[in-house]
Amino acid sequence: MVNSIFKSFLFAGSLLVVASCNQNKKAQGDASDSSKTAITVNNHDDIKFNGDTSTTGMVAIPGGAFMMGGDNDQADKDEYPKHKVTVDGFYMDEHEVTNAQFQKFIDATGYLTTAEQKPDWEQLKAQLPPGTPKPDESQLVAASLVFTPPNHPVDLNNYSQWWSWVPGADWKHPEGPKSNIKGKENYPVVHVSWDDAMAYCKWSGKRLPTEAEWEYAARGGMKDKIYPWGDENVALGKPKANSWDGPFPNANSGRDGFKDLAPVKQFAPNGYKLYDMAGNVWEWCADWYRNDYYETVNKPEGVKNPQGPADSYDPDEPYTPKKVARGGSYMCNDSYCSGYRAARRMKSSNDSGLSNMGFRCVK
Question: Which residue has the higher pLDDT, 11 or 163?
Fold first, then answer.
């Protein structure tokens, strides 16, 4: 998704970059960063395990089999065919990684996230069609995508109408350089790329869930239900997730109690006692994304512990390798993406970050 936004900006000649490239230069940050040696996304070898082998804050997910894939007529083509999958048991974080948890990682390592560093055009252009012109250097700056909702209805095919490339936006400054996360320690960390999430996992002695593990956990032990809570539509009954209530992207009623990000654990957990497996923020998974992957693992006997495809392919953006994200965000509703469905797949380049993307870990 992020690279789609980038291209719409680039080819329109307006905003030219998104947080979708590896980077190698330290950005201007808080004073607290000045005494630390930056660890860039290209230098994960410098990150050491913190030694914590406990499962505090995690939930034991029993192994089992399930049918993976689309459950209703909202399902996209890449959610089919529905196929049998078996996974071994694992532990999963009960909620997304929070700002407070991510801060401990930063304090321990001095790591700089993708959004805090200047984009490298040589790496960025490899994800774009041949011949794409280089943007002006003044626009290749440390920045990230920030949700900036319009006050009127817009064409839902044009992402640039509700996303802005904001210099200085990052996990500590989610709306831009004048914002901060004070008082939001218990909110999910955002503006983190897949690379950033992997760095955190290495430090914490955990890993990202496979796409199969994520969907199995999201279903909470239920069979063929649309959502982590069952089949009741997200807009009916008691609020069940932080999602978009009203016409997207210009009018959110806040029916569920929130108009943007929410702290973790504000809604009832699913059957495995996992919180926020639908809505609030998208969550990175370990797997590469291929639109046709389910066709390759659809076997009568099923498949056990699938690790995803060996490579990535998205026909909409064939030059851009992508990783899977799951769970939807506060920006999802039925008119736009229905991302809170247990089977819904999203994808973005591994070096993308934006204001509704986070993660949780497993081990």
Answer: 163
